[in-house]
Write a structure and sequence with these properties.
single chain, alpha/beta, nine-stranded mixed β-sheet, five-stranded mixed β-sheet, 38% helix, globular
Length: 836
């Protein structure tokens, strides 16, 4: 386990470098080179202490020893010159192992500051070389500082996810183990530690048992069983160091293109563990012809490669993007068919935020066991809701964690291939499906929830009925084509757009369009409490729900569910239906659509009316708290609109054109992607409240050109086009971010105006009255630099600006508190429904 002193030393070394070496990857490289340099000198000193000869810094290389480098008689410039000479020539030193020569190949110092180097070397001098667990853990912590490796679609796999997969696959001491996309060797290190724990004489609870320790020969053989490939020479270097510091004298890590090279194709392994790149590089991949699935997608080829390279009793654990699970492309279908027939026995669905802040991509774990797969006709699905950390950008630890429970489920399943020994708690996250059911549609979809009953209920004491048994299921009316039939109408006509506007609503009274008496003639009138269920549209749109609060007419694009109120309370049914993930009811995930026959087959529990009433009352109490909190948020956000008007009433306010106190800069022109070195903030990331959204994050690589557009804290961004044109957002985050070309950055004279103060003004009606007059363009409105520079900005004293900002911050805290209250109450409602 990493001790705090070592962690502090690493943090301190990085802090010394950060001003000169801002890239985390470059920081890791500099610290790695310096540690290896220092450790070679330490080993020479150990040899001298026991009467042996030095082995690394000998002959003409003596002048480069660490001891000479830190000689106090050297000036700062002399030390810098000596260090540069040493690291740039170290790869030529014939007295050091080939591993170390590889590490120093191409080494250089990316700054020319003697003071920074002296401070840095002094911090590195605090480390002492040992073949110890502490040192290896320290290096793993250093590697955790790496952010996204976007060039190859790679990003660091969270340690607890790695350890979970290794525990499931359970590698043994005599088995060969491979990671074909090894990065910094995280999976290999975890597997090595797992095997050592199997032979430490202690059980999982720390009690002594009969396990035998590994002999020196067994340990040497064990370390020779591990192999790793990576296409990146930087990753290979870090993996080599990581394994060396964990005691591997000659790590078997190879710079190798797993997908394009045939050199190692004929090798096979007992265990394969991997988180392959999720992204196919620009220009695609040119794989060789020995793959069983002909494709050019990296994730498809990597999974195919792993299946092909397992031994007859082999096992594997692979992290894959969600596309592998359900996409309808021919190669994906062929791959899934192969997996089900060839070793796959379980799929573990992970929450969408597991890889935050590097990527928001939804992932799953594929688990293979060639022996188990042949023994059962069933298939195990697990859905992880919580992994021990929240799903925000910071990934803060909390006490909800389904992974230990999932591990127990898998252990039980391996013994019986059934769920007969699963506890009720375990059944909430796990379910078993027959392989023939997965194969029957021909698309071999591995979305587990598609095969379970639409909702899994924790308490099965109530009868489960199909929806058509307790409600009339149908569709609305075809809309009249004559526009005159909607002119000055009085009868509500609910369309899909009305449902989309409210998202989830149990009391929808009004519609955008209204029918005249003539328009309503002959159309079916739906009674109050009819539930509206969208049948088509974007995948997220299918999960909008509304219950009408008055009798009304309904569009044919909406399914209608009219409850039989003698059997079920409408609000009880509505609360059940709003939990349904309608995307799971349809095969087409690109433009999904639903049939009323599919909706009619949704299964729900039917408790007695008295129980339904009690549940509805519990939910309504919590819903009232939610509605009250939303009203407070709405009113405080509305208050901001009047901020500009209040400034007009103040005396001694100077109104100046924005370009007199501000420089304007357009953003970077490039394409966003799912991973990279920095967040790529686009116009769609600014919401209607002038906030930068954190969902659906996109990224970009920090090229020299892109670095010019890095944001600083309190930078202001204005959307110049799109749905939020004119909106101003303030950057309050700590992560690296670049802004896109359809955004304008405002760089104010800080002695004239506070960024927070301008942001408040930019949310007000006063600002928008000006902005609308300055907009350019026809159908697509623009708010370019020529327009925005003419906005009149209020200038008041800095002291008064700070007062306004402080008041706004207090109001924002109230808004955030009410948002948290909404989250708490929504979870409580979910808990009530989960107990049905």
């Amino acid at each position: 386990m990493l001790d705090q002193t070592t962690k502090r030393k690493i943090d301190s070394a990085r802090q010394i470098l950060v001003g000169k070496v801002p890239d985390p990857k470059a920081q890791v490289e500099q610290i790695t080179n310096a540690l290896i340099y220092k450790f070679m000198d330490d080993m020479d000193k150990e040899n001298e202490e026991v009467g042996l000869k030095t082995q690394f810094f000998v002959d003409e290389w003596k002048k480069y020893s660490w001891t000479k480098l830190l000689d106090n008689r050297l000036s700062g410039q002399e030390r810098l010159d000596l260090y540069v000479q040493a690291i740039t020539n170290m790869s030529k030193n014939p007295h050091i192992p080939q591993l170390f020569r590889d590490i120093f190949k191409g080494a250089f110092l990316p700054y020319n500051d003697p003071r920074t180097l002296s401070l840095f070397l002094k911090e590195i001098n605090e480390f002492n070389y040992e073949h110890s667990e502490n040192l290896g853990n320290a290096f793993e912590y250093l590697l955790s500082c790496l952010q996204s490796q976007g060039d190859a679609g790679m990003f660091r796999t969270p340690r607890h996810i790695i350890d979970f997969i290794v525990s499931v696959v359970d590698p043994k001491k005599n088995e060969t183990i491979l990671d074909p996309a090894c990065g910094t060797a995280g999976f290999l290190i975890s597997a090595y530690k797992h095997i050592l724990r199997q032979h430490d004489g202690m059980d999982d609870a720390g009690r002594p048992n009969s396990e035998k320790g590994l002999s020196p020969d067994e340990k040497n053989r064990l370390m020779s069983n591990f192999s790793g490939y990576d296409i990146s020479p930087d990753m290979v270097k870090l993996a080599l160091v990581n394994l060396y510091l964990h005691g591997f004298p000659e790590p078997k890590i190879y710079e190798y293109d797993t997908l394009s090279s045939e050199k190692r194709w004929d090798e096979s392994f007992d265990v394969i563990l991997a988180n392959p790149p999720f992204m196919t590089p620009k220009g695609g991949i040119v794989p060789h012809k020995r793959f069983s699935i002909q494709a050019n997608r990296a994730e498809v080829l990597f999974v195919d490669y792993i299946v092909e390279h397992l031994t007859i009793k082999g096992r594997a654990g692979i992290i894959v993007p969600e596309g592998i699970i359900f996409q309808s492309n021919k190669a994906y279908k062929q791959l899934r068919k192969k997996l089900i027939e060839d070793g796959l026995f379980a799929v573990v669905s992970l929450p969408a935020g597991v890889f935050n802040p590097y990527a928001g991509v939804k992932t799953s774990i594929l688990l293979f066991d060639n022996e188990i797969s042949k023994k059962t006709k069933n298939f195990l699905f697990l859905k992880i809701q919580n992994d021990g950390f929240d799903l925000g950008a910071q990934r803060r630890e909390h006490n909800k964690n389904d992974l230990p429970l999932a591990l127990e489920v898998i252990k039980k399943y391996k013994l019986t291939f059934s769920d007969k020994n699963f506890s009720e708690e375990e059944k909430q996250i796990a379910y078993i499906v027959a392989k023939e059911k997965i194969a029957e549609t021909g698309d071999y979809n591995l979305s587990g929830e598609r095969y379970k009953e639409i909702i899994h209920f924790a308490n099965q004491k109530w009868e489960i009925v199909e929806l058509n048994k307790i409600a009339d299921i149908g569709s609305g009316n075809s809309a009249p084509q004559d526009k005159e039939l909607f002119k000055n109408g009085k009868h509500v006509f609910f369309r899909t757009s009305d449902v989309a506007a409210v998202h989830i609503c149990d009391n929808l009274f009004d519609s955008r369009d209204k029918l005249t008496d003539a328009g309503a003639k002959g159309l079916k009138l739906f009674p109050k409490n009819t539930i509206l269920f969208p049948k088509s549209g974007a995948s997220t749109f299918l999960n909008h729900r509304a219950m009408i609060g008055i009798d009304g007419y309904v569009s044919s694009h909406l399914a209608t569910i009219t409850p039989n109120e003698n059997k079920i309370l409408p609000k009880f049914l509505f609360n059940l239906l709003k939990r349904i993930d309608a995307k799971k009811l349809t095969n087409d995930q690109n433009y999904p659509s639903l049939k009323t026959s599919e909706i009619a087959k949704i299964k729900i529990p039917l408790p007695p009316m008295e129980v339904q009433k009690e549940i509805v009352e519990q939910i309504e109490v919590k819903q009232k708290a939610i509605d009250a909190a939303k009203e407070i948020i709405k009113n405080l956000e509305r208050e901001r609109r009047y901020f500009g008007a209040s400034l007009r009433k103040l005396e001694s306010v100077e109104w100046v054109e924005l370009d007199r106190i501000c420089n304007l800069e357009y953003g970077f022109t490039d394409k966003a992607k799912d991973n990279g070195d920095a967040r790529f903030i686009r116009i769609t990331d600014i919401d209607e409240n002038g906030m930068i959204k954190t969902r659906d994050q996109k990224f970009i690589n920090l090229t020299d050109e892109a670095k010019k557009y890095l944001l600083k804290k309190d930078d202001l961004l204005v959307a110049r086009t799109g749905a939020t044109y004119g909106k101003t957002a303030i950057f309050k985050e700590s992560y690296p971010a670049v802004f896109a070309s359809y955004l304008i950055k405002l760089d104010f004279e800080k002695d004239k105006i506070l960024p927070e103060f301008y942001w408040l003004f930019a949310q007000s009606d006063e600002y928008w009255d000006q902005a609308k007059k300055l907009m350019t363009g026809g159908g697509q409105q623009q708010f370019n630099a020529n327009a925005i520079k003419r906005v009149l900005v209020p200038i008041i004293s800095m002291e008064r600006q700070r007062i306004f900002v402080a008041e706004a911050e207090k109001e924002q805290k109230i808004i955030e508190a009410n948002k948290r209250l909404i989250g708490i109450m929504e979870r409580k409602i979910e808990d009530v429904l989960s107990e049905i």
